[in-house]
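Practice problem: predict the structure.
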Amino acid sequence: MSEYRYPNKVPFRKFILNSSKIAKNPIPFQNKWLKQNNNSFYVRPFFRGAVIISCNKDVASQMLQKKHKDFHKSKIQTQFLSKYIGYGLLTSSGDYWLQQRRLIQPGFHREKIKNLVSVIDLAIKDQLKKVSPNKELELYPLMNELAFEVVAKSLFDFSAERETLKRLQFIIEKLQKFITTEIRQPYKKLGFYVSGKMRYHNGLVKESRDIIEAIINQRRTSDTTHDDLLQMLLDAQYEDGSSMTNTQLIDEILILFVAGHETTANALTFTLTLLAKHKNILEKAKKEVEEIASNTNNPLGAISNLKYLSACINESLRLYPPAWITDRVAINDTELGDFYIKKGTMIGVSIYELHRNSEYWENPNDFIPERFIEKPEFVKADYYIPFGAGPRLCIGNNFAMFEMVLTVFEVLKHYDISTTTNQIKVNPLITLKPIGLTLMFKKK
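Answer:
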């Protein structure tokens, strides 16, 4: 490998010696080795070629944007994830991905999503009515329920029974936990087959697809037109005039459910906790909310004027990006930052560490929303990528921001919030999940 230039190597035995701890939470180990090796290191597992882990902005921007054609998604996404959540935009690659992206993208343009704002706003208000005031509540389940309702109503309008959707929510959460275990502990695969866990989870996959197909078939035979995302997917046509098959629709809808509610629930949980922990910032946000609420009843108008609140959410996404790591595989020998890597090399960009890299951020571990007010260009920086970057930028980024701004707006409009949480703990699964964060809601 003399003609190639790789970052410093971390011996694979260090991974083996810490395998159980890394399986639970790889972030502390990545953090240590990235700092020791100038933001990038590589490891060579026994069972595959080199794997680079990096939090360097040049590596990230070249891999995701400037040289994206030299990289494809790894088998972790195209094979492991796809067998559980389908071969949709998140897990597909190549010409098929491009075809699907071109077909679906128009339905997620900012102007189209504005049409869904009233649906999003109503779902948020309905869910917040269920909050038990004056009790310290575990926050994530509440935000998870809220985000799921928003996605379900935006996707399906009112086409599906509530219990059916609750079952779908249960299945998605069970599958995510199992996917993470299977990816991080591949040596247990035989045990999963012997114990019946693989059969059980494959059964859940089939059940989830059956649920969505029943909703699709019901809509196909309905005479009613709905202004929702399912209708957009059904009406979308390829260049030859054909439409998506049921299998393709199921794949895309599953992806929208997984990516559309899990990540938003995580982000809302972290944002509200950070606000409750930082009283001076919370007061600034509340002051803006009160001013905007007194001037408009239009949720769309509120979104465009909540500048400080949006900065709070951007800063929360910086500290706790829901998609905390992303990976690609080099399909050619290629330069990547200061390195020259071999075809087949896998690269993992730690978005979590990139967002906390002291070379790019002042006081990187502190919650400072003002940085996005003073320098609004940060949202477009190549070292700020909470929704990814390049051609595979998250298709639902506008939807997610609308939903998060409206949710925090409604919470601060109607409640005083506080928390006894001292330390924010995370569980990096497929997404970055909060652990045990609680919030007190006191009705205004």
